[in-house]
Amino acid sequence: MSTYPKARLAAVQMAPVMLDLDATTDKVCERIREAGAAGANVIGFPEAMIPGYPWWIWMGDPGWGMRYYVELFKNAVEILSPQVRRLSEAARDAQAYVCVSVTEKDGGSLYLTQLWFDPAGDLVGKHRKLKATNAEMTIWGDGDASLMPVLDTEFGRLGGLQCWEHYIPLNVATMGAMNEQVHVSSWPIGLPDPTHPFGVQQCKNAADYYALTNACFVIQASQIWTEDQADRLCDTPERRAMMQVGCGFTRILGPNGVVLAELPGDEEGICYADVDIADTIPVKFFIDTAGHYSTPGMMQLYVDQTEHRSVHLEGGRDQQPVTFEELQEE
Asked: How far from each other are the two terminal CA atoms of the chain, in whole angstroms?
C-alpha cells in the first residue's frame, strides 16, 4: 500500500456459555457491537469462542469425553446458519472487521476456524487451524493453506492464527511472506501451572515473538476460566482442581513487541489500542524475514495453497466471499 492508515484495534477477553451455541453467539454479538460503539476498526476474539473450548480432552480419556463431543457437534457453527447471520449483522452494525474463532461443522467433521467479517457484514475469509494440538486431534480435523488468508483492507493487511500455530516456524514464515500488518492471535486460557509449556507466560511469549518476527501489530485475545465452565465439565474434585478461575492474558502488541494495552487475567472485557500502521516500517527496516532479511540462496519454503480434499465433488468448495445479502437469504 502507498498510504498507511491509523486504526483502533480491539481485543476481547470473555468466557463462553459452555456448549450453548445460541447463548454464546448472542454474547459474542454483544461484544462486537460494544467494540464497534467504542470506535474499533478491527476486533479479535479468543480461540474456540463459539461454543467454548473442549477442555474435557485434557481431563479424561476420549471415551469419557464422548458425551461432551456429542454436545459440541450439535452446537458447532455451520457457515450458512442463523448464528453466522447474527455475527454478520453484528459486524455490519459495528462497521468493523471482526475475527471470531469457532468450532466449525463441515459434513460429519469439526474444525477450529477463524471467521472474518468485513464492515459490510460479508464473510470475507476463514482460517482453519492447520494441525490440531495433541489431544485436540480427537475433536478437530486439519486445515490446509488454501484457508490461510491475509486480507488487504483499508486498515492494513489482516490475518490470524490460533493457539499453538504461533509456535510453528513455517506458519509464521508463511504469514510473514504475505506481509501481514495486523494479526489476530486467538487463544483459550493459559494453564495455571507456571512451569507448563502451555502456561500463561508461555502463551504470551508466543505472541511477543510473533509480533517482532513478522513486524506486525498483534491482537492477542484469550478466554478466561469460570466456575460456570467448571460446573458444566468437571464431575470430580480432581478435574475441578486442574483449572483455576481467570488465567486470561488478553493484550495488544506493537510491531516492536511493546504492550500497548492489556486486561487483568480474571475478568471479561475489551482492551483497545489506537495504532498507526506506518509503525511497522521501522521494524521491517531491521528485519523483514520474507524480504531483505531472508536467505533464499540457502533456505526456501514452498507453500501449497491449493485446496486438498479426500473426495472431489464437481464444483468443489466455493471460496468466494459470502455477502451480507446472501447470508440473509439462508
From this structure: 36
